[in-house]
Write a structure and sequence with these properties.
By secondary structure, the chain is mainly α. It has 15 helices and eight strands. The relative contact order is 0.04.
Length: about 525
């Protein structure tokens, strides 16, 4: 609007009619201003009313909220007052109850005091009467109270000792019976839970070849190859008429294994001459030494034995190539270790320590030093040298009673060693001695009257005796088995034990025609 007025004034001035234009414009501006003023006043009034309404609504809202809050606080205050009043009532009741109980307690105290005075008076009277009775008894018996008490104590002591000795004897007998039964149960369960293969070692090894032509190459010109092989390995090599086989003879299983592997490598390679033989034997020795260490480590891992000295571990590996009465030493030691762990667990002892002692109990058979000492003492010295537990050392040294047993591990190792060695087939005997022992066993039973047949079975560990039913009664059969067991114990030497079974039967035969 101002811009339009300005434009009009400029146009009027330019036209030369500025005065007339000015009057006209003043009127127009005045009218326009009055109109604008009225419009502004109307809008202001409307805005004023709106604001007043909004303020009034806000006031009413706040007032309502305030009233609600005041009512809520009044309600909460009223509830608190009610709870306080209830608590005051409860406290008042309890206070009254306590007052009543205090009065009752005071009454009881008064009654007790009265009763105590009466009791004290009665006790005094009783003591006076007791003294008078004692004085009268002393006058009648002619003994003082102290002398009578001493005689009574001596009499009761003697009687108690007699009864105690009889009771102790019964307890000892019962304990011995139960201990024997418990020991048998533990040993049987241990044997049943530990099952291992039995291996028989020989003093010879057989090396199989594809054809007999190779025998000539092994012997060499004028026998130089076989002499070089025997000198390098220390094993006697027997080349005879046995088809497609060469026998390696020697009592050291490690040397036999070195000779067998060396022969296998030489035959496979085809180059057989003294220099090559020495080279192959040297390499095989290193291979066997490494294998021995690996066997020792694997054995310890399989049995769960840790922190074992590396030299003892190497000796355990050498056990694989040792034998005792034909029983492989490593297999025997592993079996004894498992038996010891099972038995120790049954008895509540440390199974890991028992397994360690069982594995190392024959370690003294491996080294060749100090052959004049028993292997148990050698093993104990080795265990002590390599800082084994004192109980393990004692169990190793005492398992053949060379030293005194100092812990429960020692008899466990001794028993498990006997169990492992006494298994049927565990140890080898000379065939002739074995057969003679069986014949002698049967012959002893045949010498008794009434015996019809005898059979030695279970590798000589059981003797079955068949008797005539018309010659021997049932009672006599029992006596015969007892007599046979005593005579076999006195006259024969055998591993383990022998079971004697006497069989008596009556047969009735009839024919239907």
């Amino acid at each position: 609007m101002n811009i339009a007025i300005t434009i009009i004034i400029a146009a009027a001035a330019a036209a030369g009619g500025f005065a007339a234009a000015s009057t006209f414009l003043r009127k127009r501006i005045l009218k326009r201003s009055i109109k604008l003023l009225r419009d502004a006043e109307a809008e202001a009034e409307i805005l004023k009313k709106d604001k007043m309404l909004q303020a009034k609504e806000k006031y009413l809202q706040l007032k309502s909220e305030h009233e609600n809050n005041v009512q809520e606080q009044n309600r909460i205050a009223a509830e608190r007052d009610n709870r306080l009043k209830q608590r005051e009532t409860v406290v008042s009741q309890r206070f009254e109850e306590l007052k009543r109980k205090e009065k009752e307690v005071q009454t009881l105290r008064d009654n007790l005091s009265t009763q105590m005075e009466v009791l004290n008076k009665k006790q005094t009277d009783i003591e006076k009467a007791h003294k008078q009775q004692i004085e009268r008894l002393e006058v009648i018996a002619g003994l003082s109270a102290e002398q009578a008490r001493q005689q009574l104590i001596e009499s009761l002591t003697a009687e108690a000792k007699t009864e105690a000795m009889a009771h102790i004897k019964d307890i000892v007998e019962e304990a011995r019976m139960s201990a024997n039964n418990e020991a048998r149960k533990i040993i049987i369960e241990t044997i049943q839970r530990t099952a291992t293969e039995q291996a028989i070692e020989n003093s010879v090894s057989v090396f199989n070849i594809e054809s007999d032509e190779i025998k000539g190459r092994i012997i060499g010109r004028e026998g130089r190859n076989i002499r070089a092989l025997e000198a390098a390995t220390g094993i006697e090599i027997i080349v005879d008429d046995t088809p497609e086989a060469i026998i390696l003879s020697g009592f050291d299983p490690v040397r036999r294994e070195i000779a067998r592997l060396s022969l296998h490598k030489l035959v496979t390679d085809g180059r057989i001459h003294p220099a090559r033989i020495e080279e192959v034997v040297a390499k095989t020795k290193k291979q066997i030494d490494q294998e021995i260490i690996e066997i020792g480590k694997k054995t310890c891992i399989d049995l769960g034995i840790h922190n074992l000295h590396h030299e003892l571990m190497r000796m355990i590996g050498r056990m694989k190539y040792r034998s005792s009465y034909g029983q492989n030493l490593l297999q025997h030691s592993r079996e004894v270790a498992n038996l010891c762990a099972t038995m120790a667990a049954e008895l509540g002892l440390n199974p890991k320590l028992a397994k360690r002692a069982g594995l190392l109990h024959d370690i003294g058979k491996v080294p060749d030093s100090e052959p004049e000492l028993p292997h148990a003492l050698i093993g104990m010295k080795l265990a002590e040298k390599y800082k084994e537990h004192p109980e393990v050392c004692n169990a190793i040294g005492a398992h053949h009673d060379e030293i005194e047993m100092e812990s429960l591990l020692a008899p466990i190792v001794q028993a498990c060693d006997a169990i492992s060695g006494a298994r049927p087939g565990a140890r080898r005997e000379v065939v002739e001695a074995y057969i003679n022992r069986l014949k002698e066993l049967e012959a002893i039973a045949m010498n008794y009257p009434g015996v019809v047949k005898t059979y030695a079975i279970q590798a000589g560990r059981e003797l079955r005796v068949i008797v005539g039913a018309d010659k021997i009664s049932d009672d006599e059969a029992g006596q015969l088995s007892y007599d046979l067991s005593k005579k076999i114990q006195e006259e024969m030497t055998y591993p383990g034990q022998i079971k004697i079974t006497v069989i008596r039967e009556t047969r009735a035969v009839a024919y239907a025609k």
